[in-house]
Amino acid sequence: MTKIIPVIHTINLEQVKYNVNLCHNNGINDVFLINHLIRESKRVSFEFQKYFEWIKSTYSNMNVGVNYLQLSTLDAVKEANSIGFDYIWADKSYVAKSTESYAQEIKDIKSDIKYFGCVAFKYQKPEEDLEWTCKNANRFMDVLTTSGEATANAPSIQKIKNIKDFIGDMPLAIASGITPENKMDYLEYVDYFLVASSITNASERILESRLKELLNF
Q: Can you give 58-72 as a three-state secondary structure string?
């Protein structure tokens, strides 16, 4: 069964509480936190730790993931480990023949955290050899995460089929463009939907009606 993981574009604690409470009340036990507004790394670290501690103290069984946009992948994994996040999502995984040693360095420090590493991801330089990258991804990450060409754009079905053919039984996530209207097209191939744009309003609050539609399989 494909798991829905809402992605909360964090603004402040009150907004995070609202979204997490809504998720919990609809049976969701996994969320990702991602920052777009703050670029100063120390402040982001402080804010994310505050959000993490509130979530875990309120819902101890909730799995909390993070994407530190302002940090390198290596530093993001270190930071996520130090706080105790359950998941880390990084836009750049460095799984390529030319950067294999760096990908290995990231893996060596990731501890027990579940790593969503990106391949063929939006706004990134295309892979040198997509087939090699996909077939070697499970050496370095736990969940191969891909996207469409831009935020809120879904990947083509053919792209997802090709990646799934390459990775076999390795878990696959889509992190852009999934909506209540197109979700059924991908269920056969995908283990995780990381969703934000299609279920939130301009204030980055989750719309319960849209979330319920997304959860209705």
A: HCCCCEEEEECCCCC
Is the dihedral angle over the CA atoms 60, 52, 86, 210 positive or is it negative? Answer: positive
pLDDT digits (tens, 9 = 90+) for 183-201: 999 999 999 999 999 999 9
The architecture that CATH gives domain 3-115+181-215 is Alpha-Beta Barrel (3.20)
Q: Is 168 exposed, middle or buried (0-12, 13-18, 19+ CB in 10 A)?
A: exposed
Residue range 135-179, pLDDT digits in tens? 999 999 999 999 988 888 899 999 999 999 999 999 999 999 999
* Rounded Cα distance, 205 and 183, in Å: 21
Sign of CA dihedral 9, 60, 18, 48: negative
4 DSSP 8-state letter: E
pLDDT given for residue 40 in this prediction: 73
pTM above 0.70, yes or no: yes
Query: How much of the chain is helix, strand and coil, in % rounded to 5?
Result: 40, 20, 40
Give CA separation, 209 vs 180, 199, 215, 216, in Å.
10, 8, 10, 11
Q: How far is CA 84 from the centre of its chain?
A: 16
- Say which residue the tokens 């950067």 belong to: 99
Q: Considering all CA atoms of the chain, what is the largest pairwise distance in Å, rounded to the nearest integer? A: 45
Residue 41 clears pLDDT 80, i.e. is over it: no
